[in-house]
Amino acid sequence: MSGRIGADAALAKLGGWEKGPGERDTIVKTYKFADFKTAWGFMSSVALKAEQMDHHPEWFNVYNKVDVTLTTHDVDGVSEKDVELARFMDALADRLG
C-alpha cells in the first residue's frame, strides 16, 4: 500500500494536473479529445489499468471531455498510486491525441 504523499508532492511529479477544490486532498485534470469515441476509448483503457492496480479514479464524461479526480481513499489523500495512474493517463492521452 502506498502511503499518503499529498497533492503538492504529487503535483511536483506531474504536468498539467492541479490541486482539487475544497478540503479533500485530491489532484484533478480535464482531458479533451477529438470526439466521444476517443474519450470513451481513453476511459476504457484507464478502467483496465485501474482494475489491475485496484485503484479507481473518480471521473465525469460529457462527449469529448473527461474530468478526472484522483485520491487514495485508504490513506485519505493523494498517494504514489495516484501519481502512477496519472502518468498512465497522461501517456495514453498523448497517444490518442
Gyration radius, to the nearest Å?
A: 13 Å
Residue share in helices?
40-55%
pLDDT below 50 for ≥5 consecutive residues: which ranges?
Answer: none
User: Mean of residue pLDDT?
Assistant: 96
As laid out across the biggest beta sheet, the strand order is 1-2-4-3
- Assembly state: single chain
Strand content: 15-25%
Q: Name the helix and strand elements from N-terminus to C-terminus, one letter apiece.
A: HEEHEEH
The secondary-structure class comes to alpha+beta
Number of helices: 3
Q: Give the strand tally.
A: 4
Q: How would you characterize the largest beta sheet?
A: 4 strands, antiparallel
The best one-word shape is globular
How far apart are the termini?
32 Å
3D architecture notes:
The structure is a single chain. The chain contains 3 helices and 4 strands; from the N terminus they run H-E-E-H-E-E-H. The chain has helices spanning 7-11, 36-53, 80-96, and strands spanning 18-19, 27-32, 58-62, 65-70. Strands 1-2-4-3 form a 4-stranded antiparallel β-sheet. Strand 3 (58-62) and strand 4 (65-70) form a beta hairpin. It is globular.
List keywords for this structure.
20% strand
Summarize the structure.
41% of the residues lie in helices and 20% in strands. The chain is α+β, with helices and mostly antiparallel strands and 97 residues long.
